[in-house]
């Protein structure tokens, strides 16, 4: 549940639907699912294996597996990347907190599209409002992380993930039953491959990495807390299934409503904060409340996983106490988060650097270490839980081929496409 919580986040509810909108609907969803199965899932297995077998934080895991190799530097980069992501991600998390409060006070009732755009602009342009929401969001994440891996992160994820699924299902039911919703449903199920180009494929692959939280040590750190009998293969498969089902459900919660209201599907990043409040405001006070609460919970379960990467490093390597480490990370993330909230350039640079550079380098190093530095027999033994998992045994040759060849090639290819 915690791994699913890390994976399911703003990437699913905010990024995925607008990318589907920009890249022509169903065809993009199909490409996304293929990328997740063929490339992202094997990267997940590699990162998870490193965490489970070493039982260490990101830096510790690389110290144990590739000591004296320059690849070890990736450990530091991953912690830095997790820190940078948590800083700008919490800014968007803060917006969802702000919108959640507005939905509680009923301020979306009767909203028009121009007012919605003004509300969003006024919020992001103001100085104190985003900083206040950022502080609240970071504090909420900090409280959960400081409470510990079992009593904080584990408990929060176990309780909140089912709640999240129920909420999104309720919104889907409401959205698809609106008059005029069928055009939106058709958009999500009828593929138009003419919209698919190199950019769309690179975006689908990049989105699958972002959505599964790959390359920044979140999967590695959470997997280091797995029990021996737990299986990297099954946890990976379930995380990918939950994550993809949730992203598609978010698409069905949003697109039919957008089409029913006759608003543009390709609105881009503003879809969730400008277009949706207008549509949901026409559905009574409950739908916006449920939707922004869902975004807030999803954002929290992801931000705690990034914070945990940094906290685990401070606790394991620097011998800080958990509470002190969490407080330090929250304060530092608040400083960088303020810069992201106030200067769009800083926000965009952090977003670009982490998704297009750091996550790619991290994923590349994790697959190289597992497939090219560790003995194949050891990887097979760990992957199949000492030969006890039949399904993992059957899947191993395919997974191994992907980790060894397909993943490194695909990562280099998207990195080049993204940087061009
Ligand atoms: N997977 C998260 C989402 O979809 C984002 C994330 C990225 C979380 C990297 C952790 C690490 O929103």
Summary keywords:
420 residues; mainly alpha; Hydantoin permease; 18 helices; 80% helix; globular; binds phenylalanine
Whole-number mean pLDDT: 92
Helical segment tally?
18
Unreliable stretches:
none
Full CATH superfamily name? Hydantoin permease
- Described by the principal axes of the CA atoms, the overall outline is globular
How many β-strands, per DSSP? 0
Number of domains: 1
H/E element string?
A: HHHHHHHHHHHHHHHHHH
Helix content: over 70%
State the secondary-structure class.
mainly alpha
The largest sheet is: none
β content, as a range? under 5%
- Level-2 CATH architecture: Orthogonal Bundle
Q: Work out the oligomeric state of the chains in this entry.
A: single chain
Radius of gyration: 21 Å
> What is the CATH first-level class name?
Mainly Alpha
| CATH fold annotation | Hydantoin permease
Distinct compounds present: phenylalanine
* CA(first)-CA(last) distance: 37 Å
Describe what you observe in this structure:
This protein has 420 residues and is mainly alpha-helical. It has one domain: Hydantoin permease, CATH 1.10.4160.10. The chain contains 18 helices and no strands. The protein has helices at residues 2-7, 10-22, 26-54, 58-65, 73-104, 113-125, 128-146, 149-176, 182-189, 198-211, 218-223, 232-260, 271-281, 286-316, 322-342, 344-373, 376-383, 390-419. Helix 5 packs antiparallel against helix 14 (286-316), helix 5 (73-104) packs across helix 15 (322-342) and helix 16 packs across helix 18 (390-419). The longest helix has 32 residues, at 73-104. Phenylalanine (PHE) binds next to helix 1, helix 2, helix 10 and helix 14.
């Amino acid at each position: 549940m915690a791994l699913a919580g890390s994976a399911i986040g703003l990437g699913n509810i905010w990024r995925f639907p607008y990318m589907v909108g920009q890249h022509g609907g169903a065809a993009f969803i199909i490409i996304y699912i293929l990328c997740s199965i063929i490339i992202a899932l094997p990267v997940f297995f590699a990162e998870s294996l490193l965490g489970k077998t070493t039982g260490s934080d990101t830096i510790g895991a690389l110290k144990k597996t590739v000591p004296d190799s320059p690849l070890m530097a990736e450990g530091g980069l991953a912690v830095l990347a997790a820190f940078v992501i948590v800083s700008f991600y919490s800014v968007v998390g803060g917006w969802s907190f702000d919108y959640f409060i507005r939905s509680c006070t009923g301020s979306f009732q009767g909203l028009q599209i121009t007012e919605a755009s003004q509300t969003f602009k006024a919020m992001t342009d103001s100085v104190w409002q985003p900083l206040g929401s950022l502080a609240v969001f970071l504090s909420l994440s900090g409280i959960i992380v400081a409470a510990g891996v079992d009593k904080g992160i584990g408990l929060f994820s176990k309780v909140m993930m089912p709640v999240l699924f129920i909420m999104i299902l309720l919104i889907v039911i409401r959205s698809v039953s609106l008059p005029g919703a069928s055009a939106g449903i058709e958009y999500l199920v009828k593929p138009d491959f003419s919209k698919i180009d190199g950019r769309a494929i690179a975006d689908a692959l990049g989105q699958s990495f972002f959505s599964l939280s790959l390359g920044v040590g979140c999967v590695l750190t959470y997997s280091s807390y797995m029990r021996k009998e737990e299986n990297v293969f099954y946890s990976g498969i379930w995380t990918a299934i939950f994550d993809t089902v949730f992203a598609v459900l978010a698409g069905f919660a949003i697109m039919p409503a957008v089409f029913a209201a006759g608003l543009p599907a390709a609105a881009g990043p503003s879809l969730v904060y400008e277009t949706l409040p207008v549509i949901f405001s026409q559905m009574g006070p409950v739908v916006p409340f449920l939707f922004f609460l869902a975004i807030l919970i999803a954002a929290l379960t992801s931000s705690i996983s990034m914070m945990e990467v940094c906290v685990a490093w401070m606790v394991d390597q620097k011998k800080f106490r958990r509470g002190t480490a969490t407080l330090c990370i929250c304060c530092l993330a608040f400083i960088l988060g303020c810069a992201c909230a106030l200067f769009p350039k800083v926000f965009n640079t952090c977003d670009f650097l982490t998704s297009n550079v750091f996550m790619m380098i991290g994923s590349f190093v994790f697959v190289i270490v597992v497939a090219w530095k560790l003995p194949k027999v050891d990887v097979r033994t760990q992957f199949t839980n000492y030969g006890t998992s039949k399904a993992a045994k059957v899947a191993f040759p395919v997974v191994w081929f992907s980790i060894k060849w397909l993943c490194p090639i695909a990562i280099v290819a998207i990195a080049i496409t993204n940087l061009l």
